[in-house]
Amino acid sequence: MSTLAPSFDNYHHLRPGTSEPLSLLGRPEPSLAHGAVRDVIDWLGRAIAGGYFPIGSTLPMENELGEQVGVSRTVIREAVKILTDKGVVKTARRYGTVVNTLDHWNLLDADIVSWHEADSTSVGLIFRALVELLNIMLPQATQASLNRLPAHIDGLSELALTTMQDHHAQQRQRVDAEYTIWAQVLSAPKSSVFMQFRGLTYEMLRLTYALEHRHESVDQLYRELLQRIGHGDASEADLTCRLLLKRSKSLI
Prior knowledge:
- This protein is mainly alpha-helical.
- It folds into two domains: 35-106, Winged helix-like DNA-binding domain superfamily/Winged helix DNA-binding domain (Arc Repressor Mutant, subunit A); 116-249, GntR ligand-binding domain-like (Four Helix Bundle (Hemerythrin (Met), subunit A)), CATH 1.20.120.
- 54% of the residues lie in helices and 3% in strands.
- The chain has helices at 35-49, 62-69, 73-85, 110-114, 123-144, 155-165, 171-187, 192-195, 198-211, 219-230, 234-249, and strands spanning 89-92, 96-99.
- The chain has a two-stranded antiparallel sheet.
- α5 crosses α9 (198-211) and α10 runs antiparallel to α11 (234-249).
- The mean pLDDT is 91.
């Protein structure tokens, strides 16, 4: 019989004095669905945005789609219902499920934005609307977060800034690094209104990197943003916020 105690490594609630290693924040998970329904929504959304199911086309019947992706008709029905709520499709008893024109889509839904790549035919329209909205909301969030972030750079922020400086960091890591800073700014006021913009902020950063031909170093601007928010310097924080947003705005 072994006299060694079992390892604590596989237990999350033991040894409360220890903490998880810091990691960058990623895209917020959508809250409308979970499991297979979420996967089907994402698959169908990308298939529609990518033109596999073009605008005006009719989706296959529920049982056909279910067989194609390996899920039940109930899962397909729930996924289609959510896509209908987002304006992407419409259902009619005689015509089935039809892909709507873009003017019916909620183009500022973070899920819908996430389905579009830089070469999408409608990405320009979506990106413009996204940048214009966040050029309004992020400066307001910056002002609302004054004195609500620490005056010193904390560990998570330092990890994000270090990743931005790393020339070997992959594009996804750089997006996550910038988003980590904005997520803290949007969360600091403890307002559900600002927190709702986290997903859209992530998508703006993702598309900014995808559309840019050259990526400028922005770690110093983010460091200044955090410091000015932490010290409650309203005018300088606003200026730095707008300088960071100018990068995305220049791509419209």
